[in-house]
Design goal:
Layout lengths: L6 H5 L20 H16 L1 H11 L9 H22 L5
Amino acid sequence: LPGVPTVEQACGLPGFESSTWYGLFAPPGLPAEIQRRMNREVAKVLEAPEFQRWLVETQGITPPTDLTPEGFRRVHEQDIARWGAIVRRSGAQVD
């Protein structure tokens, strides 16, 4: 888009990147076997070549490489830290 500044130019955020992810959250205390089964079933879908093509071609999403609950937890925690810093820097507050 000609004439539209980048986030770095407009907001002074060098190296700014944003990505999209989807995840499943469950209540605390979910039995481990249920968590493992949900993970196995979701991983089957995410590993399917036709689904990966759909993610890339229609959603612009790079398929995840770490399909473990621990891998998702890391992504989630990194996003909380990164976006938390951006929100604090912006001065935004909840009324």
